[in-house]
Amino acid sequence: MSRSLPCLVVLLIAAVAAAADKPPVVELFEDDADGLLALLTMGGISGAEENRAAAETEDTFSGKVALRVAPAQRFNPDIKGWSFSVAEKPKEGEYRYLRFAWKKLTPGPIMIQFCSREQNWIHRYHAGGSPPWAAKEVAAEAPNEWAVYTCDLFKDFGAFTLGGIAFTPLQGGDGLYDHVLLGRTVADLDRATTAAMLKTPRKLTPLRLEQLWASLGSSDEAVATAAVWTMAAGRADAIPFLLKTVKVPERKGPPAAVDAEAVRPLIAGLSHYRYLTREAAAEELFRLGDGALPHLRKAAESADGEAKARLAALLDRWAARTGLDELRLRRCVTALKIVEAPEGRALLGKIEKVLP
Amino acid sequence: MKVCGMGGPRRLSICAMAVACMVAPIAHAWYGDRAAPPGRPLPGQAGAPGPGFGPGAGKPLTISPAYGPIAPPHPSKAAVIELLEDDAGRLARSLNPGEDLTNLGRAGAWGDDCFSGICSLKIAGYQRYRHSLPGWNYPVVEKPRPGEYRYLRFAWKKPEGRGVMVQLGVSGVDWGRYFAGENVVNFYPALQVNSRAPREWEVITRDLFEDFGRVPFNLTGFAFTSMDGVALFDHIYLGRTIEDLDKVTGAARTWARKTESLGTVNLEEHWKNLASEDAAVRQPSVWALGACAKSSVPFVIDQVKVPDGKIMERRIKQAIADLDASRYPVRERATKELETIGLTALFDLEAALAKESVSPESRTRLEKLIGKAKTEESILTEPQGVILRAMRVLEQAETAEAKTLLEKLSEAGLEAGLSLEAKAAAERVAKRRR
Fold it and tell me: Which residues, numbered 146 to 165 in chain B, qualify as contacts with chain A under a Cβ-Cβ cut-off of 8 Å?
């Protein structure tokens, strides 16, 4: 017994080591910007140019550091220690899904590229503009807010062994990159992202919370997803904000009628000379709900000039938003579930009750 | 297994270390530093720049350290400096002073559409600018101490036309540029901040230190470049941090939707804040008082003493007469007096100059005074600054009482052109109340 114990311990250590060798999620970049930058030895279009890249600590998606890269690119096709198999049905140590976050500081395209061990750079994702090389588009415009993408590498490019990476903001302003992960399954990636977000709590200012709230209702899924995760990371501020802000609609019967007197100053506010007041009036009308719509339509019929154009634009936004509001509530549910905060449970239940 | 089991605890630890060393590197640890050997393919085709590499497009100005020493911190030590909010008329008068404006364009306060506050700056034509605006010498640095800055926020709108640009006077020597839409004027280098011209108000926040080559510089002036047609500008602030700028923008948003009854303590606190040079302190109070008209307007009426306009009329009349006095000190004193009165005396100065009987001595002095009144906006004293902010409060309040007080102030002959500001404000309120 006493002789076999050390052998069991060694076996256990070997098993643990083997598991660590083949984790379900591999972190290509999270916080070690300096380490990665030392390996990204090539720059510019030719590869021989000086290309500014640095650790970004002020503006990150997750963790404490993002990667800030100036156009055109920093890369290395052959990173030592990188040999990750992308497969349709990944076994231990193989991967299929990619998750990354990026944002573009000023307009222009943005791209991320992966090189195979066979030195082929055909595995590219881009957003904005017309890419100079064949690439899979993940968005028509490069986002100026953090956006998170989860891509199926196998579906997009087939099986290959990933050995290099290029961070390519191409032109315009700098590109920020963060949270670049490979996963066997999307669920594995979700667990990793949740862990990363909960590990590094962050402070969210009231203005930032307003921006995130707007992003939760975005038609851009990637931007909305980033907002969900950011709210999870900033849960200490986000939960009280959500408790205060989320208005759970009643689903029974037609919309409650809204008093014409309550709506009149708001409709007048839509034509105010001050943009912020116009916006505030529009927000308040949205808050009143569908009961305000008949008044708005009536006002749009009788208005003229700029007031008519503003009312028409608001009615368009209203139509788009009805769908987005439901989406926003679903995204709130996701954020609340990630955080699992006791104070958010009542709200979670309330939202889930009304969602179809 | 046999080997591992034979050596006891010491051998065990060696084995464990060996196993650990055999573990292949997990991706977050990087090993080595290898460049691709020659002939390896690159990401993209070599020598094939992407579309849009125009002459300097997307490449901001890189500031030369030779532009001179960095100014000392602003004496106010303000966290946020207001470059433009409601004083669009005063700023417009400071742009291209004394120049032929035929090929530049018109500039003025525009009360029909603004982002925040009560008016915006409207530029119609090509552009208006000034490389070194009086009182502007704001140090932009990487790690701002109190009185130093790094971030710029502005709002702009381009209702029609292809592009819009702002240019920052860099140490009175060069320009740093941001544009949206097309760079129709071909001013480069310039950084595009949006591919489309903003048809509705859009807020831009920029890291000046980062954008212009990570070199400190002094912000000394501004150019508002409408390029083609009309452009509106508003809400321009310089901040130490983005959080400081957010305090201002957040307050503008809050008080655009909210009104409440302010108690005496609040009213006094806000009133005191109107004197602050820090926009993060002053502007929230201006907007709070403006939004809470019911309680604030009676309070402001109590605070603002309206001088008798006739006294100013007599002062101006006497000073103009003294320009031709027999004693030199009297003429000098009269000139200084009229300089202090500034734009308020312009109408009388021009009337005096038009008289046939004007003496050569008076003519020379009058011409200089008129030139100065037209081209140099008076630097306001603290009490004058408070009166100006009180006018902004009254204009925002838009009540009948507020309008009456503005009209009284417009007749009061306030120095430094403040009566003209009151007149413009009263006219805007009258238009909005119709």
Answer: 155, 157
